[in-house]
Amino acid sequence: MQNNDTEADIELQNLVINILKDMHPDTNEELISLIQSERNLSRKKILQCIFYLESQGKISFKTNKPLPIISMQNFVFSTAARWYWMIILIAITAIVFVFVAPENAYPLVYLRYLFGGLLVFFLPGYSLIKLLFPSKEIDNIERTALSIGLSLALVPIIGIALNYTPWGITFIPITLSLFAVTSIFATIAIVREFQTNPTSK
User: Fold this and answer.
1) What is the pLDDT of residue 180?
2) Fewest Cβ atoms nearer than 10 Å: which of 8, 62, 77, 86?
3) Same domain, 28 and 86
């Protein structure tokens, strides 16, 4: 659309402006649907008109609607907290397989090695990374690499700490300590993630 707009163009522009003023659609798609419900116009024609009006500063899709406020309870059970429940579930599964599956019970022993390996080499570091970086500041590859590296650093520290306890560095205390550390880090991380969420209250 240029400055030599036809009468039909001006009529369409006025329709767009009136719909925005009266019905307050938030997106181009919503606006297009409303226009097409009143006029038998192509999507391309409507988009050309919308972009023209936007370029002229006559319309804007900025909205002042507040974001919905969510509570901690709703956040924990939302899809945003899926990672938290996966961590807890894998850690519990690891505990079950490590303590229940005997060393000579094939093929269960392979699941024991798999989940036990995750508990030792991945979960503690991943939980700590989520705690340190609650928002998506690093990509998945970096997060995975850092998780493995931090887990390898945390396990010896936990072992040294257990050496000064009455239980010592034995199988059960190490396994339970790794589970506890993972769960604590993950729980603090989900709280921090909630606090950095703009819709939290």
Assistant:
1) 96
2) 62
3) no
Convert the pLDDT of each residue in 66-122 to its tens digit.
445 578 888 888 888 899 999 999 999 999 998 888 778 788 888 899 999 999 999
Kindly give, in sequence order, each residue whose CB lies less than 8 Å from that of residue 199, ignoring residues fewer than 6 positions away. Answer: 67, 68, 69, 70
Average pLDDT estimate for 156-163: 93
- Give pTM, 2 decimals: 0.64
Q: Would you say residue 61 lies in a domain?
A: no
Phi, psi for 200 (deg, rounded to 5): -80, 155
Query: 3-class DSSP state for residue 16?
Result: helix
Q: Is residue 146 part of a domain?
A: yes
Asked if 88 and 183 touch (Cβ cutoff 8 Å), the reply is yes
Q: Which residues contact 22 (CB under 8 A, 6 or more apart)?
A: none
Q: Can you give the residue range of the structural domain that contains 166?
A: 72-196
Backbone region of residue 178 per phi and psi (left: phi > 0; alpha: psi in -120 to 50; beta: other values): alpha
Residue 41 in contact with residue 35, Cβ under 8 Å?
A: yes
Q: Is pLDDT above 80 for 197?
A: no
Residue 105 inside a domain? The answer is: yes
**Which residue type sits at 129?**
I
* Tally of domains within the chain: 2
